[in-house]
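Thread: Modeling a multi-component assembly for a lab meeting

Hi all, long-time lurker, first post. My supervisor asked me to bring a structural picture of a complex we are working on to next week's group meeting, and I have zero experience with this. I have the sequence lines for every component (809 residues in total). Could someone generate the structure of the whole assembly? Inputs are pasted exactly as I received them:
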Amino acid sequence: MVVLRRTGIFLLTLAIASIVVFAFMAVLPGDPAQVALGVNATPELLAQTRHAFGIDRPLPVQYADWIGGLFTGNFGRSYVTGDAIGPQLVDRFEVTLWLVGAATVVAVIVAVPLGTLAAARHRRASGTVVSGLSQLGAAIPAFLAGIVLVEIFAVSLRILPSGGWTPPDADPVAFLKGLVLPALSLGLVQAAVLTRYVRSAVLDVLREDYLRTARAKGLRPAQALIRHGLRNAAVPVVTVLGLQLATLLIGAVVVERVFVIPGLGSMLLDAVGSRDLIVVQDVVMVLVAAVLVVNLLVDVLYTVVDPRLRRAR
Amino acid sequence: MTVLRALLALTLVAALAGCSAGSTAYSSPSADSITIGFSAAPANLDFTRTDGAAIPQALLDNVYQGLVHLDANGAIVPQLATSWTVSPDRRTYDFQLRPGVTFTDGEPFTADTVKFSIDRVRTDWTISLKSAMTVVDHVEAVDPRHARVVLKQPSNGWLFTMASRVGAMFAPNGVRDLATTPVGTGPYQLDRFNRGDSLVLKANPGYWGPKPAYGRVVLKYFQDPTALNNALLSNGIDVISSVQAPDSLAQFASDERFTTIQGTTTAEVVLSFNNAKAPLNDKRVRQALTFGIDRKALLDTAWAGKGLLIGSMVPPSDPWYEDLSTVYPYDPAKAKQLLADAGQQHLTLRLRIPNLPYAVDSAQVIRSQLAAIGVTVSIEELDFPAVWLKQVFTGHDFDMSIVAHVEARDIVTFGNPKYYWGYSNPTVTQLLAEADTGTPEQQIADMKQVARTINADAAADWLFLLPNLIVAKKGITGLPPNQVGEAFDLSALGRA
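Re: Modeling a multi-component assembly
Sure thing. I ran the full set together rather than chain by chain. Output:
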């Protein structure tokens, strides 16, 4: 029941998003045909090109055509290149997924130990310092972190590339080297946010009776926490991790520009510049759908894991 | 608390592991390879159907070649033609073709190839540059080594465009998938195209000319000027093909790893006037504005003093170049007098500019300098290219604008009254037509006359010519100093 209702909300949100995106593109000033043809275009050629793009038709027809295409897996053709957009979206999405995935790994590796430390020592100086640092880190935008990391590791130390992308199958070593700085700049900021959630989740667990029982049975506090506490603290943390995906994807759009990574973000920004409106629409819809799918999965899994929530809704 | 200490250590190890993945110095994969950074990426590899500068920049002269080619000084020189003759009526061009040339798919280059390629511009090309071929009446393959092109009327401009992408030679069996599989006769062939990231070229083993010094050239694309600069500073690339922010040159000048090359381009940064509309349809007003702007000071502010004051729409790489930059010296008193003569002491003008750094910087200087002669300037920034093209270029809704006009020999736009600056002078239109049909000597004389006339009319204020600024690692030779054609010619690259 819950799953059905959640799926309904998911589809409705997607439909509304598509209308908003389309309407926004329609009012954006600038003529895609003029941009594609440049300064040598004649009025006849412009009219011909508008017709070829299908942008001389009424807006509802264009919208219906676009949505109809999406349902059949046809993402349309780019105004600028005339190429099918679908295959390119797949390539670009794969790149962005590598980046977002690596950033998530960085965030988890950093946040879980630090958040646990901050919780276990919340009455001591070390815990307060970690909490304070995580507050500070959460306030730094990912692109700024990226610029600083490039300045240190690429320009000054010259141990890592300042940008660029090597596909993993082309050269695995170059791929990993190129991934380090963008994943760190995106992941460390996420880690700061996540650290605070880990801390409060672990603090909650520390106050639970079963942990006191475990310690009464002779386990040291740290042993008790690791054997019995962390798994319970993981549920809310994983939820937050899923919800943060939206932030990660939006951060990736900007970080891709700083690090010259050919993912969805670069594709989006290039398409906006050249008024390749259909590409913009497609990319935004893919991003919206990705975020909604993850939220849906998190919601559904959450109710599966915790039966109490099923009754509450 | 040993476990918590262990956790802390684990965090540190994780952080260090991230760094140690790149503990060796990052550099070009091998000495046989060179990586060059560019600022605009090609959307695909088909310049017959996709407009824009990025594709011919990468592929012309390197992968595709034409009968003729523009050298670094702007002269038309042989490439796949060894020589050519022009008939006395200037309508028939006879090209002698280079023997022993083959395309990378194995097809031989012959007079039939020439006919196929030129005819195909009219049938299959979709970009607006194809109109350059409408002057061609027909093409004949006289014999395999001899192609004849007959024009409908004489045109010097036609041979010039043959040195651009429009003149590129294609293999009849090699045009099936131009967007991903270019087939040419040049020193390089495509190795790999990573869309949005880089284009990798490798030496063409069957090339008719000297073997290139680098077996592999990577053209790497950066939208962001800072990312481009950082890539050179961090050894990610070996050359910046064209510096987009001259203020950043200082960081390379102080670093002994690099050298800077300064040459010229064909990009005139123009303060355009709407000649078709009051008050700028009055020559005295246009001249007043031209006297009222200190172009040297403007160049120092907008482009770090790099660049050339030209005074008309002609770069030094054209044979009819003359320095006209001193015709209107900075003279605010004279400017005020001219405005008074025109009855326009309290002018307010709309300066509608693209949101590009050179235009924004120039506009600020112009506003403050014109304020000194009593002209109020309101600056409006428009998103470039989309909004600027629609409102200023197509809609003619502006008093003044600032744009770099990069096309070669774009002085001919002053012969077109419908062009966005609305300049209409029958003498100029006629001189341009005569220049195109006449002998090369007549062409030079007529074009000089055109340049002087539009300067005397103050049809626009030519602020400066953009410089070509290349930064390269020391020891790299043969980089093209001037950006005068569409190609970034890689064939002369070498090592010191």
